[in-house]
Design brief:
The protein contains 9 helices and 9 strands. A hairpin with a 2-residue loop joins strand 8 and strand 9. The longest helix is centred in the first third of the chain and has 30 residues. The chain is elongated. The N terminus and C terminus are likely disordered. It is of the alpha/beta class and 255 residues long. Keywords: Membrane, Transmembrane, Transmembrane helix. This is Methyltransferase type 11 domain-containing protein.
Length: 255
């Protein structure tokens, strides 16, 4: 019996090499992780100088260049100051058409209703690149604030349309020339409530909406405003509908 035990005991215990294998694997893993970490730190701290140029300060905004194919292309794209970029946009035919359409079809109606004047404080929603902001300033309105989910300096600042960073009754008019401003919002009723909070009592809310959208459904979102005018206008060659409300604490009813 003793002989049998002595013969089987070496076979039942693993060889010494098998016991050392997991230890060697762990050491190799630690070494590879350390090499990868050092390589990443080196790449982050030693960016290729060819990707950046001293003549292009980092605080400037990127120009409207084609989509980059490499990381160096993205970093070395030509940049222009916001004012120069705005000058380019103003010179474009689309910008001019938009400004002319707003000045001819929208602003006179708002002035006629007493909702827009030179001293008016205007908040532009979904302002995009700032067409409406620039058109309002060109029309003589001095205090115009443009907001959107993405800032576009110098005309548009970033702001959450469901929670404006403005005090109550801070504006005389809330305006948007983007048909998707209210209908494309994540929470349209919340945006409507914020617009009513931001505009003073007796102030106006003017929104451009698609003609396919039922105007009564949009007006119903504004619980403390009444509809004062609805008219069809042409912007960028497309016919849209201008919905104008006045904040007066009453429930909006569209006939």
């Amino acid at each position: 019996m003793t002989a049998i035990r002595s013969e089987t005991s070496p076979a039942s215990s693993p060889p010494a090499m098998d016991r050392r294998a997991p230890r060697q694997v762990r050491r190799v893993s630690y070494a590879l992780a350390a090499i990868a970490t050092l390589s990443l730190v080196y790449l982050l701290r030693h960016t290729s100088p060819s990707c950046f140029h001293a003549s292009h300060p980092l605080e400037l905004t990127l120009s409207l260049a084609p989509f980059p194919r490499t990381s160096c292309d993205a970093a070395s794209r030509r940049v222009v100051p916001p004012d120069r970029r705005l000058a380019k946009l103003r010179a474009s035919p689309r910008w001019r058409r938009r400004t002319a359409a707003l000045s001819a079809s929208v602003f006179p109606t708002l002035r006629g209703l007493g909702l827009l004047a030179a001293p008016s404080r205007v908040l532009c929603l979904a302002a995009g690149a700032g067409h409406a902001v620039d058109a309002l300033r060109a029309a003589g309105v001095r205090d115009v604030t443009g907001t959107d989910l993405v800032e576009f300096p110098p005309l548009v600042r970033r702001a959450d349309p469901h929670r404006f960073p403005f005090s109550t009754a801070a504006f005389d008019l809330v305006f948007s020339d983007d048909p998707s401003a209210i209908c494309g919002a994540l929470f349209p009723s919340r945006l409507a409530a914020e617009a009513e909070r931001a505009v003073r009592r007796g102030g106006g809310i003017a929104l451009v909406v698609d003609r396919e959208i039922e105007t009564a459904a949009v007006a119903a979102l504004f619980k403390r405003s009444r509809v004062v005018d609805v008219k069809d206008v042409i912007l960028d060659g497309s016919q849209v509908r201008l919905l104008i409300l006045q904040s007066n604490g009453t429930t909006s009813v569209l006939h």
